[in-house]
């Protein structure tokens, strides 16, 4: 996976190329410079999407860790809970089920 720093470098480099192509188009009116500018702008859009996706990916990984921990604790409490409070037991069963379905909290090697 490419680091965010490398993606920033690519964005800066291709922004310069795009700007230079646009200036050349303004000066000469030649369509090839505008075509180059448009191609670079499309590439820049992709780089920016990748750059922003890196933050989302990290946040989702953290959220998964918290949810897994939460569901694992619910699973442990469920096995030691008293049957006196059916609402609490239902909540714990639901949390345990979500953890098992999404992250298989009973399998630490997953």
Describe this structure in words.
The protein starts with a helix and ends in a 7-residue tail after the last helix. The model has no long low-confidence stretch (mean pLDDT 81). By secondary structure, the protein is mainly alpha-helical. It is built from three helices and no strands. Helices cover 85% and strands 0% of the residues. It has one domain. It is rod-shaped, with a radius of gyration of 26 Å.
> How would you characterize the largest beta sheet?
none
The overall strand count is 0
Contiguous runs where pLDDT drops below 50 for at least 5 residues: none
Strand content: under 5%
Q: What is the general shape?
A: rod-shaped
Radius of gyration (Å): 26 Å
Structural class: mainly alpha
Helix and strand string, N-terminal first?
HHH
Distance between the termini: 21 Å
Number of domains: 1
Distinctive features:
110 residues, mainly alpha
Short description:
With 110 residues, the chain is mainly α. The chain contains 3 helices and no strands.
């Amino acid at each position: 996976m490419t680091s965010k720093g490398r993606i920033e470098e690519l964005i800066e480099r291709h922004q310069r190329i795009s700007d230079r192509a646009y200036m050349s188009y303004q000066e000469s009116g030649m369509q090839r410079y505008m075509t180059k500018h448009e191609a670079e702008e499309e590439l820049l859009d992709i780089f920016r999407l990748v750059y922003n996706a890196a933050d989302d990916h990290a946040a989702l990984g953290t959220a998964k860790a918290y949810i897994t921990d939460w569901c694992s604790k619910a699973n442990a409490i469920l096995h030691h809970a008293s049957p006196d409070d059916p609402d609490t037991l239902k909540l714990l069963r639901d949390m345990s089920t979500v953890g098992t379905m999404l992250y298989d909290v009973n399998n630490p090697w997953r």
